[in-house]
Amino acid sequence: MADISIFFVVAFSRTEASELRAEAAIKARSKQHAVSLASHFAGEGQGAVAFSQMGESATAGGNAKILARFGDVPNDRALLRQFSSVWALSRPDITSALPINSRDRHRRGIR
Fold it and tell me: What is the pTM of this model?
């Protein structure tokens, strides 16, 4: 079976306690579309990251790759650790909200 690439964007904001929170995961049509969407979400204390993932199917759990980062977002290592496993288990066309609390931030190396 041929490899399939999926593209998605995760938007981030800060909570009242100044913790980063993943607000939504949005599927994009292409690499360019993902980067464009991410750039539009960033600004005024918010950020977004464009990802791609390749695998044998849309839920195969292939490795996620960061395409672009804009604004206030976690570091690359924390992003890949958090979202690589998420896409292996869920459909990328469903929006979700995933909080990153203080304990998770420390464990994941997010400052």
Answer: 0.67
Indicate whether 42 pLDDT > 50: yes
Contact present, 78 and 110 (Cβ < 8 Å): yes
3-state secondary structure at position 18: coil
Mean pLDDT in residue range 27-34: 94
Residue with the larger pLDDT of the pair 52 and 56: 52
Please tell me the predicted confidence (pLDDT) of residue 76: 78
Residue 85 is encoded by which pair of tokens? 């496993």
How far, in Å, CA of 48 to CA of 73, rounded? 7
48-to-1, 2, 3 alpha-carbon distances in Å: 32, 29, 26
> One-letter amino acid identity for 13?
S
CA distance 9 to 102: 23
Q: What's 95's DSSP letter?
A: -
Query: Among all chains, which residue has been given the structure tokens 């976690």?
Result: 74
What single letter denotes the amino acid at residue 24?
A: A
List phi, psi (to 5°) of 93.
Answer: -90, 5
